[in-house]
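chain and backbone:
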Amino acid sequence: MLIDTHVHLDEFQNHEVSDILDRAIDVGVGFVISAGTTIETSYRSIELSNTFDRFFSGVGIHPMDIKTRLTDKDFKILADLASGNDKVLVMSEIGLDYLDGMPDREWQFAAFRSQIGIARELNLPIIFHSREAHEDSLRVLREERAFDVGGVMHYFQGNMNDAKQAIDLGFYISIARPIFRIEELRDVVKELPLENIVVETDSFPQHFKKNRDNWTEPRHIKSIIDEIAFIKNNDVNDVENIIYKNTKNMLAKKWDIVATYVPEISCD
């Protein structure tokens, strides 16, 4: 079974989400996890997870979406959202972003640390964003004992040293479609043990692409796994099975809930 560990489908209408999921199921995708980036999109993600069996949620505030210093009230809402619905599987998407024009770094640090605290309190894996901020992201995760819950380094585009540090903290490395265009990433994937890899599409409405058929969707997870198998010269079924086991291990504390909604999944 294929699992897309990170999408953003909250902006789509329900009928569009239904079609996206149908196309994904046709290629063997068992379920998706849709990340929140604000309190509002976290609410919407949970709403969709309550509508579609194969749709699960993350809650969190993305560093790019921090408009002002977050308050205790904001963190209480996030904690209540995460604890109040059994289909919330992860704290996602949280982290640091150092691109020019991003929100105040002090606000980002405070939000990242507090959301790691929520994840640890609720025993939820962390899906973290890190753009031009790997050193600080990994340091904060270490200082806040994120290794107690582990999780995923999302949409990985770093080097092998970055990957090793994340793995040492108990995190999987998430590979997405940049594997098709970044030669350095392909080199990392070739060296990276399969036992440390999960996959995602990071799907979202791509209005900048004129042809709707070219928008990235969860159905493209199959091509990512195929490419990993090609790069590593491994049997694609073996790669798929190992990545499935990795995802199951990452979600182990809530796997019984996943199995409740996805009939072909075993609790074993």
